[in-house]
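Good day; I would like, with your permission, to put a structural problem before you. The record follows directly beneath this note:
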Amino acid sequence: MRHLISLFFFFSFILLSHFAEAQVGVDWSPVTTAGPASRDAHAIVYDSERETSVLFGGDDANGNRFDDTWEWNGTEWLNLQIEGPEARNFHAMAYDTFRKKVVLFGGQTSSQKMGDTWEFDSASGAWNLQTTDLPLERSNNALPAILSRGGDGPVYTNGPRAPSARTYHAMVYDVARRETVLFGGSDAVTGVSYSGETWVWNGSNWRLASKTGPSPRILHAMAYDKVRQRVVLFGGSDASGKLADTWEWNGSSWSQKSTTGPSARESHSMAFDGSSSRVILFGGSNTGFFGDTWAWNGTAWTIWAGPGPYSRNHSALVWDEANAQLTLFGGSYDNGVSFDAYSDTWVAPPATPPEIIVSSVDPKLFPNLPKGPYGDAVQGLASDFTKIYIGYDDVNLNHPSDTGHIDILSPNGIVLGRRTTPVGAVHTNDLKYDFDTDELLIIDTNTDETISNDEDFRAWRIDARDGHTSSRLPLLPITPAGHRQTAIALDGSQIWSGISTTALENVPFQMDAIDSAGNILESRSAILDGVVQGSFIKDGFLWLIKTKHDDPPNSIFYAPSIDKYRLDTEPMRNVGHWDGSRPVGGVIEAQGITTFRDRIIYSVFYQSALENGVSSLRSDLSDKAIEYGSSESFYVAATGTPPLYFQWRKNGIPLSNGDGILGATTNSLTIDPMDETLEGQYDCVVSNLSGQAITNLFSVSLSE
């Protein structure tokens, strides 16, 4: 079915100019490369295992349907030339990151609507038919009788065993719950019907998860928000017309989030942008065709301005994780007189870099981190995308009455406030931000003075808005002496909590999934040759940060190697060293991590009780007049506990290399060649993990 506009709307709409109207969107750019033939109503997903996008099917301007499978590696298209599903359009696809399969359901062939489920195996490169299970007969979409409700959702006694054959539906993979989610569509043999069913596919069976939520509809779009672990749905058409509502699915129910944002539309495309941690929407149609790009941050829609693809609907949009860019292919434009399908590929790298991308918390990034009376240790890090929460505790265990605290920082390191952890807690060992409750989840350890290495682990929730301690969540009781390291991760409604001993070899480590009542739902364990310092959930897997100390255990400072492991039902597997996560020089021990705009931030553990920052600073910096086109170097010498960081500034603004500047973060700054843009007041900030020192100001000018 095509939704054509009338000539009346065409002549009023065409005044905007097809090309001029398209100049709305992120910083899109066309890619000049051969690829699939012109088409619309196709589907595309990102295969994270092979780091490539997979496209299947669609139809051309004459209604000829395709059965071809293509791959996009970020720069060029490859026709796989393999057999698979029957040629079709208006089907839906999702990528199962846990099982490494592309899942395809339904669509329209030349003769009928389909209800088949196919999977494309990344390893074998082949399509496989999974099920042709047809639903039992039912009328008027009546809700089947419910026998029971279990942990996997409702179980129906006389309901369908799979979605009915349909078109115009939408489908995404829910990473947190490891299932593919399908919503809506039309299952009418002829004409159009509107479905309001939500189905989930676990790789073996379909399950009817809900009959309530968004109004029954077609030609809507969905995307999975990896950060907030929600399926996001926007728009489409129901029996009343085009829609402009936003809904989210949390794994068990739908909730309406907004009715403002993009105008009412259907046949648009959506994808989750990993660089900005936002759901991106492009195009679609109503009485005309759209070329606008919108972003959803979980609370509100904002339009992203800039030139973009030509107005269209029925295009396919995907986030290319390996190349950190959005990719859009094809679609159609119908002016009421003629119909055209596109074969163009557009990409959109991140419009602006994330607010902060760091590998550790150190003075180079946050020069004004507060210090306690005995020296503080960074113990945990969390973020809600607008603020950064850094947990500290007193590293001097002779003063156990000094409770831990959490400082709230802006992305550029300005301290906005402080939260005090519960009374009696010395260690704030790990932090995570719970977006469902707008609270900080905190692992606190209360040191027993008589047995200094036997610590009692507790989890607390602190309201991130007012600092109120709202509830105490029990974790596994720890009876053996020597347990001290811990890590936490959030996976939907579950909290993963981990413990290990202080031994540096053959460390027994266990992660337990615990519900809000403290019940252990699942346990996973591994033997490591180091200490687990943090954990997080990504792509449906539980990941751990492990350190092994290179220096003797009795050394004051450690220089650990830092590795990332994936913990699944199989034994722990090492997936590689994390280059850049270990600062040069010692003192550092990784201690807790979090994600910020789909990047990983490492917090660091450090001891500053015995140090007083940069102990001496010497420089011979004086005003300097430099001839145009000439060069000049400036030096500073400093001593103090390594590592030392150098940051040269001009007029108070940190410098970076380029445009005549060399050595911006070293002890030697070179200006070459000199011109009028480099005139100003200069100084250098020298810092280490305990403090900083600043040189005198000196003037640089062009000589006459």
The chain is about 0% helix and 45% strand. The first helix runs from residue 7 to 13.
